[in-house]
């Protein structure tokens, strides 16, 4: 270990890759999202149709990322692919949106969800002070930032544990549904198409919600440099995860609908109400399992987003200190702490609803742009080595479908979409005044700040390969 280069270690195997993808996709979504899809489609069979179709479409998107990840083997995920396909300005705008809004908002929401699931069983029926929730959320963000900074291997083992617990909760849901159906309780499916909406807008929103409930299959690409044998393990992790996620989502929804039926529309905690109806004692365990599932998603988001920040700094789009790693732990400590501070700031607002809409729309746009990069790079760089080469009809179907769905929020939530577009456009003057041509005063100040942070966090720039 004496001659080890100062670089982030390759510590992620196939198991860690699968656990990482499952952790971010499931999060708490499998316990929350089904209600919204049922509400939009209006019928039981309609909602199941959406979950199956979205699972297939998400698999197409994930396979596009498998091609990009094995052809462009560098950490940074979407940021790196946009940079390679479209140039520095679009890549910076993605980074601008991700760092200012996507990442801190997602972290804040998951941390608050964890706090709610911890506090509700303890103070059932009582008013919970929002400040209390925010303090717990802030503590958990700080804790997982520290864990990710201190030991990557321990973090991945913890993620494996979270994934196992999360799958155990899902097995309980699916098992309970199977037993319920085996006892002859199939009445909810006998008229399953009753109430199906004829509104194209409602169906579009249902598909929009479904597709992006599966989002997260691209997060392993953010850490491809730390993946052992990425040409093999990246694709295998995707091949294993996406079919498993699709099966789990469909089976979990069948269970929910078998037990709760249309009563699911009036519940605020699907998994808890499901558990109460199956076996009362499970209603105490389920919030704990949902909280743990949320922790798994938060841990993955903190881990992967720091690599995106690291990659952006390495390319000169962010301050150079964010491209430094700790000399003992080999982790990007400055990036982790920087994103932690932004996430804590996002806990201050009382309502994040408009930001959630903006995040969903803008992140969906950039995901569509990345999948289109598969088609564009076939033309732009035809001789690029591609260990995995998907059929072109896959990115075509994914891009056309998601681009069509992006029209819906423009009509239903115009203020949030316009506000989000303005935030993105604000990145243009930042890019041209601070990134493309850095002012002399800032250029002179940067080395001093970098040295202070190097001493404070015991970090240094990574060493290049020979």
Automatic annotation (TrEMBL):
<feature type="transmembrane region" description="Helical">
    <location>
        <begin position="161"/>
        <end position="183"/>
    </location>
</feature>
<dbReference type="GO" id="GO:0005886">
    <property type="term" value="C:plasma membrane"/>
</dbReference>
<keyword id="KW-0813">Transport</keyword>
<dbReference type="Pfam" id="PF13520">
    <property type="entry name" value="AA_permease_2"/>
</dbReference>
<keyword id="KW-0472">Membrane</keyword>
<feature type="transmembrane region" description="Helical">
    <location>
        <begin position="414"/>
        <end position="434"/>
    </location>
</feature>
<feature type="transmembrane region" description="Helical">
    <location>
        <begin position="390"/>
        <end position="408"/>
    </location>
</feature>
<feature type="transmembrane region" description="Helical">
    <location>
        <begin position="44"/>
        <end position="68"/>
    </location>
</feature>
<feature type="transmembrane region" description="Helical">
    <location>
        <begin position="12"/>
        <end position="32"/>
    </location>
</feature>
<feature type="transmembrane region" description="Helical">
    <location>
        <begin position="325"/>
        <end position="349"/>
    </location>
</feature>
<keyword id="KW-1133">Transmembrane helix</keyword>
<dbReference type="InterPro" id="IPR050598">
    <property type="entry name" value="AminoAcid_Transporter"/>
</dbReference>
<feature type="transmembrane region" description="Helical">
    <location>
        <begin position="236"/>
        <end position="258"/>
    </location>
</feature>
<comment type="similarity">
    <text>Belongs to the amino acid-polyamine-organocation (APC) superfamily. L-type amino acid transporter (LAT) (TC 2.A.3.8) family.</text>
</comment>
<feature type="transmembrane region" description="Helical">
    <location>
        <begin position="355"/>
        <end position="378"/>
    </location>
</feature>
<keyword id="KW-0812">Transmembrane</keyword>
<feature type="transmembrane region" description="Helical">
    <location>
        <begin position="278"/>
        <end position="304"/>
    </location>
</feature>
<protein>
    <recommendedName>
        <fullName>Y+L amino acid transporter 2</fullName>
    </recommendedName>
</protein>
<dbReference type="GO" id="GO:0015179">
    <property type="term" value="F:L-amino acid transmembrane transporter activity"/>
</dbReference>
<keyword id="KW-1003">Cell membrane</keyword>
<dbReference type="InterPro" id="IPR002293">
    <property type="entry name" value="AA/rel_permease1"/>
</dbReference>
<feature type="transmembrane region" description="Helical">
    <location>
        <begin position="203"/>
        <end position="224"/>
    </location>
</feature>
<feature type="transmembrane region" description="Helical">
    <location>
        <begin position="89"/>
        <end position="115"/>
    </location>
</feature>
<feature type="transmembrane region" description="Helical">
    <location>
        <begin position="127"/>
        <end position="149"/>
    </location>
</feature>
């Amino acid at each position: 270990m004496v001659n080890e280069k100062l670089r982030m270690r390759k510590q992620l195997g196939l198991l860690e890759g699968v656990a990482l993808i499952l952790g971010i996709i499931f999060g708490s979504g499998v316990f929350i999202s089904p209600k919204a899809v049922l509400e939009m489609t209006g019928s039981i069979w309609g909602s199941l149709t959406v979950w199956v179709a979205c699972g297939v479409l998400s698999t197409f998107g994930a396979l596009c990322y498998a091609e990009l990840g094995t052809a462009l083997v560098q950490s940074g995920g979407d940021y790196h692919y946009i940079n390679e396909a479209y140039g520095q300005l679009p890549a910076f705008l993605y980074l601008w949106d991700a760092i200012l809004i996507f990442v801190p908002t997602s972290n804040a929401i998951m941390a608050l969800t964890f706090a709610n699931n911890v506090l509700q069983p303890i103070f059932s029926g009582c008013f919970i002070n929002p400040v209390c929730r925010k303090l717990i959320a802030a503590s958990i963000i700080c804790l997982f930032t520290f864990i990710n900074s201190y030991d990557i291997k321990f973090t991945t083992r913890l993620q494996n544990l979270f994934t196992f617990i999360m799958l155990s909760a899902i097995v309980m849901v699916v098992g309970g549904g199977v037993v319920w159906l085996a006892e002859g309780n199939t009445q909810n499916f006998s008229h399953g198409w009753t109430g199906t909406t004829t509104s194209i807008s409602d169906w579009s929103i249902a598909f929009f919600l479904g597709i992006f409930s599966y989002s997260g299959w691209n997060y392993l690409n953010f850490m491809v440099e730390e993946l052992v044998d990425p040409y093999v393990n990246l694709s295998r992790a995707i091949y294993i995860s996406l079919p498993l996620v699709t099966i789990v989502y469909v089976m979990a929804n069948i269970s929910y609908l078998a037990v709760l039926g249309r009563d699911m529309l009036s519940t605020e905690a699907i998994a808890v109400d499901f558990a109460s109806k199956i076996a009362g004692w499970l209603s105490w365990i389920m919030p704990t399992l949902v909280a743990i599932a949320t922790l798994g998603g938060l841990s993955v988001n903190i881990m992967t987003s720091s690599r995106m920040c690291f990659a952006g700094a390495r390319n000169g789009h962010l301050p150079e200190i964010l491209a430094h790693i700790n000399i003992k732990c080999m982790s990007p400590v400055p990036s982790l702490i920087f994103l932690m501070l932004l996430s804590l700031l996002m806990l201050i607002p009382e309502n994040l609803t408009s930001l959630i809409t903006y995040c969903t729309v803008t992140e969906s746009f950039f995901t569509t742009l990345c999948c289109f990069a598969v088609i564009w790079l076939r033309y732009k760089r035809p001789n690029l080595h591609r260990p995995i080469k998907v059929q072109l009809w896959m990115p075509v179907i994914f891009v056309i479908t998601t681009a069509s769905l992006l029209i819906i929020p423009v009509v239903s939530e115009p203020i949030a979409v316009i506000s989000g577009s303005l935030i993105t456009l604000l990145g243009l003057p930042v890019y041209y005044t601070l990134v493309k041509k850095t002012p002399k005063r800032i250029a002179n100040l940067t080395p001093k700040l970098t040295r202070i942070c190097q001493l404070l966090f015991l970090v240094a720039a990574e060493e290049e390969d020979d």
